[in-house]
Amino acid sequence: MRHRAVLCGCGAMAKGWLKALTESDFLREKVEVVGLVDLDQATAQALAAEFKLHDIIIGTDLPAVLRQSRADLLFDVVVPAARRAVVAAGLAHGCHVLSEKPMAATLDDARELRRLAVDASRIHAIVQNRRFIDGVRRIRRLIQSGSLGELTALHCDFFLGPHFGGFREQMDNVLLLDMAIHTFDAARFMSGKDPLAVYCHEYNPQGSWYRHGAAANAIFEFSDNVAFTYRGSWCAQGANTSWESAWRITGSKGTLIWDGGERFEANVVSGREGFLRAVEPITVPEAEDGADTHGHVSVIERFIGAIDTGTVPETDGSDNIKSLAMVFGAIDSARDGKRVTIAA
């Protein structure tokens, strides 16, 4: 079956979606973009021209374009404040929906979208593309192997200074809401643990070009007595980390260090005596056979594959809402200055 897709939200992010759809032989065969929607019709028309999308429906009214195009897929690339209405419209039309992150602008909205997806018997999944990179998959496999012993903690640093312009620089809680969810979701995925509680301090450093919340420190309590600590800033210039953060993951037998790129260092205890016990290096395994490590492309491929096979994609809202709950738990903790229990 070839799917008919409408893409809603034709700003800069949409170009990455359309590029991903052309990079994969599987997606070129399985998905046809039949409509574009944006509040500014000229923006949608310019995007169609750039990607040579001919004979498609272009408009500003999403329900009308869905009807006219007979779409069965909706790609949601709108700003977070518009997400609830856009996803609800797609589900009401009978579309499966793949959304940009965050899943919703509030946790209550996310719960409502989960209910609507279940009632419609449709998939609502989220582009959590950083699950689908080689390093994250390799670390998950190492932790699952038990080579580090029992997992005890994950620690990460995220320090970058991007000048986006546009809506991000005016957002509330910009780091936590717009970016940290990638890191929080990676911590959940790599560890295989559930978030239970959080204490967070959020602030906007001197010199920040963001209006609010460009930096945060958070301590999460995960299941099985595992800790996850996050230190991050989106206005830290001069010594950038990777976009995937810099990680230190500790277990009862050893430690893994990952720079968020190509460098891994993993050591386990080999000695039984001495003030500091001797250690020896271990190899970080390759990603599991058949693992998708192509970021955005892999997310969309998994989404289409799940629709065709009647399965649940890895980034389905039923899972992603747990990562979103970490975000809003951190925001609530920072606002109230206290430990917050996390409940998706």
TrEMBL record:
Residues 4-123 form the Gfo/Idh/MocA-like oxidoreductase N-terminal domain. Keywords: Oxidoreductase. GO terms for molecular function: nucleotide binding; oxidoreductase activity. Residues 136-256 form the GFO/IDH/MocA-like oxidoreductase domain. The keyword Nucleotide-binding does not apply. Pfam families: GFO_IDH_MocA (PF01408), GFO_IDH_MocA_C3 (PF22725). The keyword Cell membrane does not apply. This is Gfo/Idh/MocA family oxidoreductase.
